Amino acid sequence: MLSYISAKEAAEKWNISQRRVAILCSEARISGAMMVGNMWIIPADAEKPIDKRTVRYEKIHKVELKPFVKWVGGKGQLVDEIEKMLPSDGEKTLTKYAEPMVGGGALFFNVLSRYNFEELYISDINSELINAYTAIKQDVEALIKRLDDMQMTFLPLDTNGRKYYYYNIRDKFNSVELNNKTSIEKAAYFIFLNKTCFNGLYRVNRKGLFNVPMGAYKNPTICDAENLRNIHSALQNVTIICGDYTLSQSFIDSKTFVYLDPPYRPISETSGFTSYNSDAFDDNEQIRLAKFIDEINEAGAKIVLSNSDPKNVNPDDNFFDDLYKSYRIHRVSATRMINSNAEKRGKINELLICN
Ligand SMILES: C[S@@+](CC[C@H](N)C(=O)[O-])C[C@H]1O[C@@H](n2cnc3c(N)ncnc32)[C@H](O)[C@@H]1O
Questions:
Q1: CA of 105 to the centre of ligand 1 (A)
Q2: pLDDT per residue over 126-146, tens digit each?
């Protein structure tokens, strides 16, 4: 049976005025509150609503942005879970957002679409990916024109024609060095390859050359001009950096929400996919990251970190439980997307670690 408290008791509990409680009730901001006679009663377990007058990162409804590349380890499925970790505490003013391992940016684009952070910072070690973000920010029309040309040429071709075209673009992508002059052209190759290659993988060989074969998509959208233009506008107040996540430290302070999504620690010897770049993200890297997290925790940032749960394969593996023993660890269910054997995709736990 539900128990209720009076507006006076709620006011004391939440440390706000009784009049404010009445206003929140009349605005239907407290779920389950009811008027009895001329008094409000409130479910005893109701939570204090976020006070929009003090929250600086308030939710807004702008145009919905989608990631412009498919990315391994993309956190589309977990966005709702992670979003719950954005603190709903009006007294703690968060005005900055940092995602130092942004990848395809599933959460980042959600945040850009729905929250009003004053300053944002993204980075990644993958220079081609960051070049694409920068190209969209700086010269989206030139990029759209190039992608549109490629789409118009590629889509009408038969399978052999498409293969010829795809491998030609892959060769060009691998032979062009990234520099200012070529950045738009390379960004266009990068997005084209992502949209047409096998599973949207980004994999390079030992020499650093992209080596993913063509995929089998019938009608891939290579140029989503509307989304690219919307992203272009939204990126104007975002700092975009290519490099190690530790570079974000100078940006991060007690007003910053930080989301970190490192490459997975492999869940088994054979299924691991950690090489986005030629360097794998091994246990030593995970330990280095944990030290960085300790430092930004000290600086007062609000942190959320995601990773695969090693207990999916070995219930006795306490690697992350030990590494993050002074943090809160949540286990949430997700479908692992990356596995060349479709039958092996299944429900597993992911870790969300926060302070
Ligand atoms: C799991 S993915 C992130 C996926 C992303 N959350 C999304 O929604 O697409 C991990 C990313 O970390 C990047 N990365 C790996 N080592 C890094 C480092 N030392 N510094 C910055 N980024 C790094 C990889 O290039 C990759 O894009």
A1: 9
A2: 999 999 999 999 999 999 999
Residue 155, domain member (yes or no): yes
Q: What is the distance in A from the centroid of ligand 1 to the CA of 312?
A: 22
User: DSSP secondary structure string, 122-159?
Assistant: EEES-HHHHHHHHHHHHHHHHHHHHHHHHHHHHTTS-H
Helices (H), the chain: 7-14, 18-26, 79-83, 106-114, 127-154, 159-175, 183-196, 225-234, 283-298, 319-323
Cα distance between residue 146 and residue 92, in whole Å: 45
Same domain, yes or no, for 161 and 101? yes
CA dist list (Å): 18 to 21, 27, 162, 168: 5, 14, 68, 70
* 87 belongs to a structural domain: yes
Residue corresponding to tokens 């738009």: 184
pLDDT at 52 over 70: no
**97/301 Cα distance (integer angstroms):** 10
Q: Measuring from each residue's beta carbon to the nearest atom of ligand 1, which residues come in under 6 Å?
A: 71, 73-75, 100-101, 103-106, 123-126, 244-245, 261-263, 276-277, 281
| pTM reported for the whole predicted model | 0.80
Residue 71 alpha carbon to ligand 1 centre in Å = 9
Q: Tell whether 304 and 254 lie within a shared domain.
A: yes
pLDDT band with cut points at 50, 70 and 90 for residue 310:
confident
Length of the chain, in residues: 355
Pair of tokens at residue 107: 């959460």
Residues spanned by the domain of 199: 76-354
